[in-house]
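Handout, page 2. Input:
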Amino acid sequence: MICTICKDPILLSQPGKPATVEDLPLTKDLVDTLQAHQDSCVGMAANMIGVPKCIIAFYHGDHIVVMLNPRIAEKSGMYLAQESCLSLSGVREAKRWKTIQVVYENEKLEPCQETFSGWPAQIIQHEVDHCNGILI
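Output:
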């Protein structure tokens, strides 16, 4: 289901709760909503559709990756980026890392660990910030 984008800074500022098996149906809504906004959005967190859970979805090449309970375990190569967000107006500066290692669960709730660099790493950091209640 395509959901409305949340623009409420109070809800967006709340850290998400850990995702569980009961939250798996939410991943479809998140992916559907991301696809509906693919012309202006490359990643989305569950709180952007009004649900304060630690779930993100993002484009990695031509496919969408879903991560539950993502956590950045390692990072290197700090830089400043200019970012925008569907939930917020304008462009803002954000501190980002060129390479990150992410620990998360996949849609089968299996533990995963993966390293990302460049653009995918920046997208993930933006969405993990959402999960942590951090607004750029």
